Amino acid sequence: MKTTSRRTFLKLAGAAATVAATTAASRASAAAEPSRRKFTIDLNCGMIGVKASLAEAIRWAKQYGFESVAPAVDGLAKLSDSALDELLGQLKSLGLVWGAAGRGFAIRDDDAQFAELLRDTAGWAKAAQRAGVTRAATWISSRHDSLTYLANFRLHVRRLRAIAKVLGDHGLRFGLEYIGPKTSWTAGRHPFIHSMAEMKELIAEINQSNVGFLLDSWHWYTAGETADDLLTLRNEDVVACHLNDAPAGVARDAQIDNRRELPCTTGVIDAKAFLLALVRIGYDGPICAEPFYQPLREMPAEKALETVAAAMRRAVALLD
After folding, report:
1. Virtual torsion, Cα 77, 78, 80, 83, nearest 10 deg
2. Which of 228, 244, 182, 234 is nearest to 213 (CA)?
3. Confidence of residue 30 (pLDDT cuts 50, 70, 90)
4. What would the DSSP string read from start to end of 62-115?
5. How many CB atoms lie within 10 A of CB 234?
6. Count helices and strands in the chain by DSSP H and E runs
7. Could you report the per-residue pLDDT of 142-169, keeping only the tens digit for each?
8. Cα(250)–Cα(198) distance, integer angstroms
9. What's the pTM?
10. Torsion from C-alpha of 267, 192, 196, 252, nearest 10 degrees
11. Residue 37 · residue 67 · CB < 8 Å
12. Which of 30, 34, 28 is CA-nearest to residue 235?
């Protein structure tokens, strides 16, 4: 066997190191670059003040370029098997999917009231499962007038764990939304969860695999969070998302929850950073507009839909 000289060996070793370094850099670069978005642009008629039947919402979603539709489970529950099959056929034929179902869950200390809520939730979840809905979400109040943080935390863990089990038994993931504005969590005697970090603690304590986040760019902004905070999450941690903007000329701590703007209107909220982080973690669920914008609610339905669709297109264009 021919012996390799020291000079040749060093030359080969150097070349190998260069190749390895280049490959590693290439992989790191690829990891740093966002992949093609997987999330859907979702139409939630209720959040923009548009009254519509499920069939109308599906038709309008296709007409105005949305990719998913928020399911109104109470409406779905009233449909006969044949009517539901027809509706689901329409959804599929138009290339649309269901978004996330929204629902309020009253987290009260009264055991009898909560038992009634659980029974109602089981029926609601059964109707959602029957229609092929797989995502549900709710919001958590950021204050309480009588319960301290710890007492309220323990109550939410017990109640939300029970709700999560019922939803999980029917194939539903369960997203929880924290409320970020300082004007909200300081409005009661005892502040409660109002940040991503605190919600992580609640979700960990609930300890149910189907529980995750309902993220909202408004609450992310008012909580003073960044893209780095979003990047600590994984796709499986996020159930649903809301997108909006904030009024200009108002300090972050002075923002009021029900006074918002359409996405990409004022530029106060960094929609690009928010969406790019979601793309980077591979989020594959729905994103809908939740602007709480009164002029939108005063528009004719078609004009409101056109306005929201244009705002969402501007937002997605930030990823190009």
Report:
1. -90
2. 234
3. very low
4. HHTT-SEE---HHHHHTS-HHHHHHHHHHHHHTT-EE--EE------S-HHHHH
5. 11
6. 13, 11
7. 999 999 999 999 999 999 999 999 999 9
8. 25
9. 0.88
10. 20
11. no
12. 34
Q: 113 - beta bridge partners?
A: none
Beta bridge partners of 154: none
The token duo for 135 is 């995502």
Could you give the angle at the alpha carbon of 152 between the alpha carbons of 151 and 154, nearest 5°?
A: 65
- Cα 54 from Cα 159, distance rounded (Å): 31
Residues 6+ apart with CB under 8 A from 287: 39, 40, 41, 42, 240, 241, 242, 243, 275, 278, 312
Pairing assessment for the beta strands 97-98 and 68-69 based on DSSP bridges:
parallel
Cβ atoms of 107 and 160 within 8 Å: the answer is: yes
Lookup: tokens for 7: 């000079």
Mean pLDDT estimate for the chain: 91
The residue type of 183 is: T
| Angle (deg, nearest 10), helices 301-317 and 271-280 | 70
Please state whether beta strands 68-69 and 135-139 pair in parallel, antiparallel, or not at all (unpaired): unpaired
Q: How confident is the model at residue 108 (pLDDT cuts 50, 70, 90)?
A: confident
Q: What is the DSSP string of 195-229?
A: SHHHHHHHHHHH--TTEEEEEEHHHHHHTT--HHH
